[in-house]
Design brief:
By secondary structure, the chain is α+β, with helices and mostly antiparallel strands. It folds into three domains: 144 residues, no CATH class; 108 residues, no CATH class; 100 residues, DNA Binding (I), subunit A (Orthogonal Bundle). β4 and β5 form a beta hairpin.
């Protein structure tokens, strides 16, 4: 019997199945549901394999369409079609995952989460991960599934593994923390409205999420009944409130309620630090966020019990900020106005660096990310001013640069500052 005939026969057999709901026991209902669960998983696996065959045979491409579009035309939901395409393109590289899918023990949603998780981890390393590493990560993520994790929890685990890899790999900046690829587009719709679409790194995303949580929370109606607004409407109203705050001078924290942004730092393993809404972050980003006065670091023990919130004198005081403004005048790297800068700990606060003028400098958010992620270094010279050491990709000789506001001076005495 051909495979097509076999599938048709399976379909006919399923149509003929009759559930005797009146006399069915709880045990028999459970067993039938388990059988259907396995059948569903097997169908999804075969569908993903056939998607790969359709792609290889160019069935859709020879007619100017993509395989995903072909599946949608056939009646598959867009999200299901995209899932099949992703799985089809990855299973050949993930034989262990494929073997479990063949047995029908892993749902396609979990297979897809593992596929996306391994791809996500790979993007966090400057060099491609090899087969042994790929097997290690697949085994870890499969273990999450068999322990009862949801697809979202598998994705969170993959992010954590990717952050550990990025921390342990020179220049291993994860895409989730790469500020340079942030985008926001806006376009007017035909009915005169504005459509906004943004792709943000996790730090900006965390601030956005925290602001939405604060200003978009449900509020009772005047009569005390529950908030009648939809979630989408509440978030749009929250954005309106944030824009009003910005227009009215939102920097005055004595007038404007502060949005709460929290980063949790395990005391025994800072590599597992995480933001409240956006999840896992690398050690480098954790160090950078510790300089941000709008973010509160929470130190916890192995059972996530708080040990300390912040640290005495973690943040630069207003007087110290003024002193930095007087000395640096602007971002020491690019010259952005001082009002747009953050006070950076040269020796990381998380590593015991002191909060003092000799251990601080002004950096705008973008340059702050460069110092923590892209190989730039800062030190205080003998002249008691900040100096920058560029990465070898910028200057192979890594010649020291004075802070931005002092670059009009002569560099004849450059060695004297070192």
């Amino acid at each position: 019997m051909s495979s097509t005939a076999s599938l048709i026969a399976i379909g006919d057999a399923l149509r003929a199945v009759h559930h005797d709901h009146e006399s069915m026991t709880g045990q028999s209902a459970f067993e039938e549901m388990r059988a259907l669960y396995t059948i569903r998983n097997l169908i999804d696996h075969h569908a993903a394999q056939l998607t790969g065959t359709l792609e290889r045979l160019r069935v859709a491409r020879d007619h100017g369409r993509t395989t995903r579009e072909l599946l949608i035309v056939m009646g598959f939901a867009p999200s299901v079609a995209q899932r099949y395409v992703r799985i089809a393109g990855a299973l050949a590289l993930l034989p262990t995952l494929s073997a479990h899918a063949v047995d029908g023990v892993v749902p396609s949603e979990h297979v897809d989460a593992i596929v996306r998780g391994v791809e996500h981890i790979g993007k966090r390393s400057p060099e491609p991960i090899d087969d042994a590493m790929r097997l290690y990560y697949v085994t870890d993520l499969l273990g999450q599934h068999f322990s009862g994790a949801t697809p979202a929890e598998i994705a969170d685990r993959a992010r954590t593994l990717g952050n550990v890899l990025a921390d342990d790999t020179p220049d291993g900046l994860p895409a989730a923390e790469d500020r340079s690829i942030n985008t926001l587009t806006k376009s007017k719709t035909t009915d005169g409205r504005l459509h906004v679409d943004a792709d943000l790194d996790l730090e900006v995303g965390e601030k956005f999420q925290a602001a939405m949580e604060r200003y978009g929370a449900p509020r009772p109606e005047p009569d005390g009944s529950p908030d009648a607004r939809s979630t989408e409407r509440r978030l749009a109203d929250a954005l309106d409130t944030i824009l009003d705050i910005a227009a009215g001078g939102g920097n005055d924290m004595s007038i404007v309620p502060r949005t709460h942004v929290l980063v949790t730092i395990p005391a025994d393993n800072p590599q597992l630090s995480a933001l409240e809404h956006m999840g896992s972050i690398t050690r480098a980003t954790m160090n950078r966020l510790a300089c941000d006065p709008t973010i509160t670091p929470l130190l916890v023990d192995g059972e996530t019990v708080p040990l300390d919130v912040g640290r005495e004198k973690r943040l630069f005081t207003p007087a110290q900020r003024k002193a930095l403004h007087v000395r640096d005048k602007c971002c020491i790297k690019c010259g952005a106005p001082a009002t747009r800068t953050q006070a950076h700990h040269i020796a990381h606060w998380a590593d015991g660096g002191e909060t003092c003028l000799e251990n601080g400098c002004l950096l705008c958010p973008s340059c702050h990310a460069d110092v923590h992620h892209n190989g730039w270094d800062v030190y205080i010279g003998a002249d008691r001013h900040a100096w920058l050491i560029p990465p070898t990709t910028v200057d192979p000789e890594q010649r020291a640069l004075p802070s931005y506001n002092r670059r009009t001076l002569t560099l004849d005495n450059l060695p004297a500052a070192a």
